[in-house]
Every structure is written in structure tokens, then in C-alpha cells.
């Protein structure tokens, strides 16, 4: 940033990093380190890192004003004193160049503090002396206290280099599926003919490959977690990992909806372990791939770069999964793409992993067992191989991203060219000469939005060579010219075509839902199951073949609401919007009418009712959820992109605002 801290400079920064602005004026208006600074520091360090600007006011949201501080020296001193005080913050990640002083006016200064992403050995970064109460996470644009389960998972990641290493007491060979073990041994013998381990008895073989081991400190032997995951029966695996779930779905159309023509889940008809899941799913993924004729040493090779990329993606999904998390492992096959999801975020930043050479595998024993039979690569070369092989087909660059709540990593491999003819024709029909006159990067942005349902600044950085600042200016111009609609703000902004509803890059959303990347949609451990199966045990939930009913639409931004529905909602909201003061019961009844049959976010409701969104959420929506009149879209009540729908009970959620009985006493 330059010394002249303009609104454009701030907007560009907000597009590229997590940004928190604090006025930091203090009681005397000359500058003071805000009390909540360390909460933002903790949240950014536990996430992707970010920038905190002291002396910048954000009011209204998305509008920045550099007001500066008169005495930045005392703010800097307080910052460094507290950064090195373990009673204040658990870890100091800052170095000298992390704090910059920027002049914004005569004798007025802004402090820019760049907070790096903490490594897993440093997490959780927490305020005070108790990680269970002082750990914060960044959710959308706020800092939220982490729940106890999340903190304990961070602590486990910190101390356990390999999460599948532990030897389990009272778990032995009887808990394994013998057919899976036999299939693995056959594959091992074929890949490594004549290997000395091939003819060992089963117990010794399992010990050699790392599935069985001994706890030398306590003096007992048993299965390792890796061995149970790889070869165990699903019901036994859940004795150790209650949320364990693997799920494959083949979907008939290129749509983000939970309808399938083929599905594989642990339903009792097969073992449900990882090795069987890998074998069965890989066969389903590749069954209809075309294989060019080629010979190697006189033998036909039934393989291709696409086969290799899918093997790597599937193996990576399993060996990097955090099986203690609440999200299922999911693999999706669609006519236009392959999707892979695993619980847990990556241990190294995605942008570093993509370039290769760095690897921090979460389940190293599993990684070794897959490598012994020819699946998966060493030294972080798997992801680069996927990207290289996909580029060799002239297909769109793979999408790799993380979601923070619940924590998960997703990869999408799309089988469409970077500039599909169909997309160009469609955009030319809608926009005509306006489309043809745009520069190449702008056309590519519109094409990506058409093909993928939306586009973001981060996605464009993956497929364009333009400078990030130029991409921000270009996206802003497309919005101003009416060629894009936008949803969200700062780094979380997504852009979509005016005639389309915005959808997530994700592959497990129901049709009609309007989402952003930081918004999971379904119950994590049973993601993808239709509502009538959500209450069944996972092993019984895979049998039905009937498609799921479409879920109610979710609208988080007023611009995403269809025009006809906007008119209907504004009419329903008139009893409140046209009056400054209304009784709580009247407000609650209007909210119920608005949320009948759909999910509406607080900002949409506030727009309709002419109310402050934060006040509406705190005083009305949260109370109605507690009383059982509203249902939230996501289990976490403080989810930053929360939405609400009416719970129908008798005549409670009606099309009007009259009711037989008041909602509150």
C-alpha cells in the first residue's frame, strides 16, 4: 500500500486477504490498542491469516475511511508488549516487518499488522491462558469463539504428526474383514513380485505394513488406527471413530443436487473399510473412461493420465482425511466433473501444496499402505501430478479449496475446456457485442461464472495471469456495468451472471439453494442423505434409490431473490416496514410469514422490514429459534451466513400475519 491510503487501496486489500479494520482511537482520540485486537489476531492465525488495520473505520460495511491515529508509537509499544506476554496471547507470530506505519494525513497514521497463518504445531492460538475458552475462529467477517471439539482437534493435530499411528487396546485381528486383507495381499504380490513379505503369515504381514503394532510404553499389542480404517468392518471402525462415513454418489446430471443413480455407503453389504471403498469407487469412476491403445513391454496398458489423476485424487482424499471430524468422506461423479471431499483442512496452505515438494500427511501409516500397492506418491508430488494430467487434456484447471465450518477440503476436477463453445455462444446470445468487446480476462470471468455457477477473486487468480489488483478492478467494472451481480464482501465476495442464481463451487448442495463457499448445507456426518433417511444409522441409509426432494431455497442477499418473489416479500413485510414501532408479536408473525417455505438470511429480512440486521438477529430471530418457531439452516446458531425458515405447527406459519394465539406470553 502507498502512503496515500485510498478507498481503492483498501478495497483491493479486502479482495486479497482477510481484513479487519478498527478505528483504535481510544478515549482521548489519539490512539489505543483495541481490547478486541487479540480476538481478531487469534481468529486470523487459526485460519488463513490476514491484515488488521488500526486507524481505519469501516462504516457502513464495505466502506473504508482512513482516520488515522495521532500517537501510533504508544499503540506499537502496547502491541509488542502484549504479543510477548503469554498471559495475553499464547504465541507471537509477528516479526518486525509484520507491523507497518502508513501516513494518511498530516500527523495521522495507520498501523497495518499482517497476521500470518499459524502452523499446525502452533495452533490453537488463543487469548489468555485457557485454549478451550480463548480460541477464536474467523467466520465470514466476525471473530467467533471456537467450540471445545474444534479446539481439541487442533490440540491433537499439534502433538500427533500422524493421526493414525495409535495402537488400540482390545482391538485385534478378529475385527478385520478377512476378504479385504486377502485382496490387499493379492495386490501386494502383483505389484511387488517376489517380495519377502508376500509369503508371511497374516499377523506378521500386517505388522510389517504398519496395520498392527505394539505400544511399548504400556506393553500391549493391537491394531493401529490405520489398520482398522484400512481393513476393519465399518461397525467396528465406528467404535473408535463415531463419525466415520464414506460415501460415493454417481449423479445423472451436471447439477448441484442430491439425486443419484448409483451410491456406495457402508450398508452391511460390504465391509465399509477404506481399502474396499478405494477399490470399488476407483472402478466406478473409471469404468466408462476411454483408454488409448498403448503397449509397454509387449503388454497393453489400460491406463491414461486421467486414470492416474483420479487415483491420486481418491488416494489423497483418504490419506489426508481427519476421521475424527463430523464430515463424511464423499466422492461424486457427474457427467461434467469428479468431486472429492474429506473432513479436515489441509495441513499446509493449498497454494503451497499445489506446487508440490511439501507434504504433511495426516495419516502416514495409511499413506504407506496405499503406496505399497501402487497408489499415491511420496514427497507431495500427488497434487502437481493431478494438475499436470488435467491440463494435458485441455480441461479447466482443478479447483482445490477449504471450508472452515465444519472443516473440510474439496477438490473438483471438471471435464470442460477452459473456453467451452457452448458458454461462448450462450454469453454472446445474452450480451451480444458487449461480450465480444470485453478484454480477455473479463470474458474469461464471465465464461467461468457460466460454467461453474459463480466466480471469485481467488478462482480467477488460479486461471488468469493478471495482477490481483487488476482482477479486482475488472470485477468491480463488470458489476458496475450490470454484467455481474455480487454476493458478500471482501475476500468472500462471489460474482454470478444476472440471469443465474449464485451456487457454491461445492458438489453436494440441493438444487435451488443459494450459497457461498463458507456455508455448509447439510448435516455433516450424513451429507447427501435425503431427509427421510437422516435419522437412520449410516449403515442402513444407503439402500434407497429414490431421489431426495429439493430443499427450500436459501436467500442470503437481497439481490439473489427473484424479482417476483421480491414483490411478494415486500408486500408481506408492510405491517412492519411501514411502522417504526411494532409489538413483538406482530414482528414475529410477519417474520414467520416471510420465512414460510424458504430460508431467509438476516440481511434479507432486515431489508424487507427496514430494520437493523444485527438488532433483528439478537432481539427477534434468535429468540424465535429458541422458542421453536424458526429453524436455522445450519446447526451452529452463530454461523456467519445463517438463514431461517418457519416451523409449521397448526396455523402458526401462515401466508398472513393473523394467528389464533400470540407467540410470546
UniProtKB/TrEMBL annotation:
Schlafen AlbA-2 domain ranges (all copies): 15-144
Pfam families linked: SLFN_AlbA_2
Lineage: Bacteria, Pseudomonadati, Pseudomonadota, Betaproteobacteria, Burkholderiales
Record-linked Gene3D superfamilies: 3.30.565.60, Schlafen, AAA domain
Annotated source species: Lampropedia puyangensis
Protein name in the entry: AAA family ATPase
Alphabetized InterPro entries for the sequence: RecG_C_sf, Schlafen_AlbA_2_dom, Schlafen_AlbA_2_dom_sf
Amino acid at each position: 500500500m502507498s502512503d496515500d491510503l485510498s478507498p481503492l487501496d483498501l478495497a483491493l486489500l479486502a479482495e486479497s486477504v482477510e481484513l479487519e479494520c478498527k478505528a483504535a482511537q481510544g478515549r482521548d482520540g489519539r490512539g489505543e490498542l483495541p481490547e478486541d485486537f487479540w480476538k481478531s489476531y487469534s481468529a486470523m492465525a487459526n485460519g488463513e491469516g490476514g491484515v488488521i488495520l488500526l486507524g481505519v473505520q469501516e462504516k457502513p460495511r464495505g466502506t473504508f475511511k482512513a482516520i488515522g491515529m495521532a500517537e501510533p508509537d504508544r499503540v506499537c509499544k502496547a502491541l509488542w508488549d502484549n504479543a510477548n506476554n503469554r498471559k495475553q496471547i499464547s504465541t507471537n507470530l509477528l516479526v518486525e516487518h509484520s507491523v507497518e506505519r502508513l501516513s494518511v494525513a498530516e500527523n495521522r497514521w495507520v498501523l497495518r499488522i499482517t497476521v500470518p497463518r499459524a502452523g499446525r504445531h502452533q495452533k490453537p492460538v488463543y487469548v489468555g491462558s485457557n485454549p478451550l475458552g480463548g480460541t477464536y475462529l474467523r467466520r465470514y467477517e466476525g471473530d467467533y469463539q471456537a467450540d471445545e471439539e474444534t479446539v481439541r482437534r487442533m490440540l491433537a493435530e499439534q502433538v500427533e504428526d500422524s493421526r493414525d499411528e495409535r495402537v488400540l487396546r482390545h482391538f485385534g485381528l478378529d475385527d478385520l474383514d478377512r476378504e479385504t486383507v486377502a485382496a490387499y495381499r493379492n495386490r501386494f504380490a502383483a505389484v511387488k513380485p517376489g517380495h519377502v513379505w508376500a509369503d508371511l503369515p497374516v499377523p506378521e504381514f500386517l505388522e510389517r505394513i504398519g496395520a498392527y503394532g505394539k505400544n511399548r510404553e504400556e506393553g500391549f499389542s493391537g491394531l493401529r488406527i490405520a489398520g482398522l480404517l484400512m481393513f476393519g468392518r465399518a461397525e467396528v471402525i465406528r467404535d473408535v471413530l463415531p463419525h466415520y462415513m464414506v460415501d460415493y454418489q454417481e449423479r445423472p446430471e451436471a447439477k448441484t443436487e442430491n439425486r443419484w443413480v448409483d451410491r456406495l455407503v457402508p450398508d452391511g453389504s460390504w465391509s465399509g473399510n477404506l481399502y474396499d471403498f478405494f477399490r470399488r469407487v476407483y472402478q466406478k469412476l473409471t469404468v466408462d473412461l476411454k483408454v488409448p491403445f498403448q503397449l509397454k513391454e509387449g503388454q497393453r496398458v489400460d491406463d491414461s493420465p486421467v486414470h492416474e489423476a483420479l487415483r491420486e485424487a481418491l488416494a489423497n482424499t483418504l490419506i489426508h482425511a481427519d476421521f475424527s471430524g463430523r464430515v463424511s468422506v464423499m466422492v461424486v461423479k457427474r457427467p461434467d466433473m469428479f468431486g472429492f471431499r474429506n473432513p479436515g483442512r489441509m495441513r499446509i496452505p493449498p497454494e503451497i501444496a499445489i506446487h508440490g515438494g511439501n507434504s504433511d500427511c495426516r495419516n502416514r501409516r495409511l499413506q504407506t499402505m496405499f503406496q505399497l500397492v501402487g497408489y499415491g506418491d511420496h514427497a507431495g508430488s500427488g497434487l502437481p501430478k493431478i494438475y499436470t494430467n488435467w491440463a494435458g487434456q485441455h480441461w479447466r484447471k482443478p479447483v482445490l479449496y477449504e471450508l472452515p465450518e465444519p472443516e473440510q477440503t474439496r477438490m473438483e476436477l471438471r471435464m470442460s475446456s477452459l473456453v467451452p463453445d457452448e458458454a461462448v455462444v450462450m454469453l454472446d446470445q445474452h450480451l451480444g457485442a458487449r461480450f465480444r468487446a470485453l478484454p480477455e480476462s473479463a470474458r474469461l470471468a464471465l465464461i467461468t461464472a457460466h460454467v461453474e455457477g459463480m466466480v471469485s477473486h481467488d478462482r480467477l487468480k488460479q486461471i488468469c495471469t493478471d495482477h490481483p489488483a487488476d482482477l479486482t478492478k475488472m470485477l468491480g467494472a463488470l458489476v458496475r456495468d450490470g454484467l455481474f451481480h455480487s454476493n458478500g464482501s471482501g475476500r468472500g465476495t462471489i460474482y454470478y451472471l444476472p440471469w443465474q442464481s449464485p451456487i457454491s463451487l461445492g458438489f453436494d448442495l440441493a438444487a435451488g439453494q443459494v450459497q457461498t463457499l463458507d456455508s455448509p448445507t447439510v448435516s455433516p456426518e450424513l451429507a447427501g442423505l435425503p431427509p427421510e433417511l437422516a435419522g437412520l444409522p449410516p449403515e442402513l441409509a444407503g439402500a434407497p434409490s429414490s431421489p431426495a426432494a429439493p430443499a427450500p431455497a436459501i436467500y442470503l442477499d437481497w439481490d439473489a431473490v427473484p424479482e417476483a418473489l421480491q414483490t411478494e416479500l415486500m408486500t408481506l413485510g408492510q405491517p412492519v416496514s411501514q411502522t417504526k414501532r411494532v409489538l413483538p408479536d406482530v414482528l414475529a408473525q410477519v417474520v414467520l410469514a416471510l420465512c414460510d417455505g424458504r430460508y431467509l438470511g438476516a440481511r434479507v429480512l432486515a431489508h424487507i422490514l427496514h430494520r437493523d440486521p444485527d438488532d433483528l438477529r439478537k432481539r427477534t430471530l434468535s429468540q424465535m429459534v429458541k422458542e421453536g418457531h424458526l429453524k436455522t439452516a445450519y446447526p451452529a446458531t452463530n454461523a456467519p451466513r445463517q438463514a431461517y425458515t418457519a416451523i409449521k405447527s397448526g396455523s402458526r406459519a401462515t401466508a398472513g400475519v393473523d394467528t389464533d394465539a400470540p407467540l410470546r406470553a
